[in-house]
Amino acid sequence: MASRVCFVHYHEIGLKGKNRSTFENQLVTNLRRALRRFPVRDVRRISGHILVSLEDGYATEELARAISCVPGVARVSLAYVCDLDEREYCGAAVRALGEAGEFDSFKVHAHRSSTDYELHSLDINRLVGDALCRSFPEKKVRMHSPDVTVYVTVVQGHVYVYAASIVGAGGLPVGTAGKVVTLLSSGFDSPVATWMVGRRGATCVPVHFSGRPMTADTSEYLCRDIVDALEPAGLVGRLYVVPFGERQREISLAVPQSLRIITYRRVMFAVSERIARLEGAKAIVTGESLGQVASQTLDNIAAVNEMATLPVLRPLIGSDKQEIMRRAEQIGTYDISCQAADDCCTLFMPRRPETHARLDQVHEAWESFDHDGMIDDLVSSVEYVDFDQCASYHAPRSLSARHRELAPAEWAAR
Ligand code: ATP
Ligand code: MG
Fold first, then answer.
1. Whose CA is nearest to atom 7 of ligand 1?
2. Can you give the residue range of the structural domain that contains 105?
């Protein structure tokens, strides 16, 4: 039987002009990392596609599904690999169409990228079409919008034949857009926001603020589970955890009750920005969605946003909860986010949080405690866990050396 490979299609990368090979190489690297549990023989670029083959020559549906989760992949097809032999590739076309599920109509789309084969694509279309009509006499040939298209692609001495495809994650390969720090809670929104920027090519460095030691460390374990769930997409190299409970208690004693959440958030932004600078990240990402909860009104977003000098990206700002939950199910974080855990945000919750913070009051509250000392302290007590799912993540040379370089003078000079 003809061997099978995964034929990987990309779309946006194909539009990248001069940078195209950088994007393609990154996708090849990311696929190798994402597929490390499979006995992969080769991942290589071939005429506008990437081919993935296994040691035994028989790529599987499971391999195709794993490939489809990798950002940058538009579609994956399990293709039969044939020699330049009419009988062989016509036979493969019959098998491929037979495996395509329910259908009434089909067409053949032949494409020849090398001219070392004497038959033109039109001849191949006719040959394969005749073979399929003989094997499926009850089915109709339809040139416009057929139920199934059988692709026959001649490249570098071989013919690849496939019919069905799995839709991929789309977007761009992780590592082509630079690094971002994402604020990750164990709720539904921020894992989705992280996946979305990763899907646009960003290498993600999540930072989680835990209520430890005032709460258990459950939210930290849920965040680790979330990063594990995102493994098929290969977005995350390192998760930072900031034990925030003690400092929240100090804030809750110092500032008016209604401004607690905003003040926590300001500290979270300040610490995240410091981590972003240590990491060389170029933006901060949150899972905020306009008006979803009290802290996400425009006034409150503005009161927190002033703490960041880096751009703050909010990929979910216009999404509604239903869409976010659907996406969470699709990327595998939904069940984890369903498990409630106290994190820093549920700690010392005021009875009536401010929904439209006035900046003068926020500033007054901010000046009522040693915020710079607190931020320094939190940055120096940060903990992290490394993950080996992300090929484009490079850890900062040495966390402590970079700490000295960047903090606190640069911060104070803002
Ligand atoms: P999520 O579902 O992401 O928790 P949410 O709807 O619960 O979001 P908020 O709790 O107001 O909304 O949080 C808004 C954003 O702030 C989150 O999406 C996340 O980016 C960030 N955030 C909230 N809590 C934490 C935390 N404990 N650690 C890190 N970031 C957090
Ligand atoms: Mg939350």
1. 187
2. 3-167
CATH code at position 7: 3.30.2130.30
Indicate the pLDDT class of residue 399, thresholds 50, 70 and 90.
low
The count of domains in the chain is 2
Taking a 5 Å cut-off on Cβ, the residues next to ion ligand 2 are 185, 187
In CATH, what number is assigned to the domain containing residue 212?
3.40.50.620
Any domain includes 27: yes
Is-contact 128 69, C-beta < 8 A?
no
Fill in the amino acid letter for 312: V
Note the pLDDT tens digit of each residue in 171-222.
Answer: 999 999 999 999 999 999 999 999 999 999 999 999 999 999 988 899 999 9
Please tell me which residue, 26 or 412, carries the higher pLDDT value: 26
User: For the residues 352-377, what does the mean pLDDT come to?
Assistant: 92
| Domain end residue (candidates: 147, 167, 187) | 167
Q: Is 173 within a domain?
A: no
What is the rounded CA–CA span in Å between residue 130 and residue 150?
13
From 183, 265, 333, 343, mutation site for ligand 1 pocket: most ligand atoms within 8 A of C-beta = 183
Separation CA 94–CA 337 (nearest Å): 45
Query: Do both 190 and 132 map to the same domain?
Result: no
Nearest to 379 by CA among 283, 240, 263: 240
Once rounded to an integer, what is the mean pLDDT over residues 344-357? 74
